[in-house]
Amino acid sequence: MAEPELVADCVAAMKDATTLPVTVKNRIGIDDLDSYEHLVHFTQTIKDKGCETFIIHARKAWLTGLSPKENRTIPPLKYDVVYQLKKDFPELEIIINGGIQTLEEIDSHLQAVDGVMIGREAIRIHIFWRKLTSAITAFQTMRQSAKKWSKKSCPISIPKWQKEFL
Ligand SMILES: Cc1cc2nc3c(=O)[nH]c(=O)nc-3n(C[C@H](O)[C@H](O)[C@H](O)COP(=O)(O)O)c2cc1C
Q1: Which atom of ligand 1 is nearest to the CA of 120?
Q2: pTM score, two decimals?
């Protein structure tokens, strides 16, 4: 984040080399470069080279003084900064990241930004996520079968939480 122009050049080179989407993942700041103005400058500089998606860990990072692990817990989470960035760049896809653990939190963030990235919680409860994915798949299959029944006689009751994934 100290060199937005360099990152922008890298993005441009990658975009020239592939038709795949090129995205940028960054923090809200580093060291003393943690003003909102710098984040806007960083985003704008890279956007100008054609990047349309930013995944933003809603913490600054202390590159001097903290380890990568400490940098995932010690700097405070500032989700509002990411929300503000989405307001200032509504045309960009802004995906929020950092400390997100529950479906309720995901739902809440999605009111303000375009997507949510889950890191450690997805590792910790990967079994839950696997079950959730299977449940959604199973539900979609059930729903297709259910279409064969009349509404009145449909024997399948759909839990509210599953409906929300459709
Ligand atoms: C073991 C581990 C390795 C990581 N490696 C990377 C990496 O290579 N690049 C990156 O951008 N973020 C990396 N991260 C950071 C995560 O992508 C994420 O931004 C961070 O963990 C905060 O999200 P979370 O609170 O949901 O875990 C790593 C995180 C962990 C726990």
Answers
A1: 27
A2: 0.80
